[in-house]
Amino acid sequence: MGLRRQVQLVGHCGPTCISMLLEHQGVQLSQEAIASAAGVASTISSLGSRIDQLATAINTLAPQFLLMGRYNSGIEHIEAMLSLRMYAGVEWQGRFHYENSHLQFDIGHYSIVTEVDRARGLLEIVDPDDKSVFSHGSIAIKEFLARWWEDNEMVKGSKYRSFGLAFVVASRIQASEVEALGFEPVTYDFSMRSSIGL
What is the pTM of this model? Predict the structure, then answer.
């Protein structure tokens, strides 16, 4: 299939993954344009972006497509998307190198899974951040599963935790196939009902 890796600006992992997924569908949109349409351009470098905000950007800039997601997904759901020749984005806890240090830190992140290799126990990913420990393109499935969660500020001042978010950019023609696998159009309400207040 082939997916061209793009390198993100600070905090732009979400818009960059959406840009890559749209490019795979034949639509060229910059990460900056997606961040702006998502309404996060002024805050993204410190707060990142939520999946429902990214869905708003797609609805505005590429309405012939839907951002469709599924919480509490398993590796089998990613495999199902790949079998439909669609790459799956994931929201998870990435690991990163501090500047000029051997130390590392974890933080919420978006990447795209391009292959599941059960025999070797690996996921092949496209990670848009050059500081990612996993920018080489592989992560053990076992480690990924332990990291497949995220905390988002869904209500101002309040964090909510969700697990196992996988998402795809689907044309409206593809939507029924994706829905049959338990994915649905991403909205704020979709994210809220799948998250636990902390």
Answer: 0.95
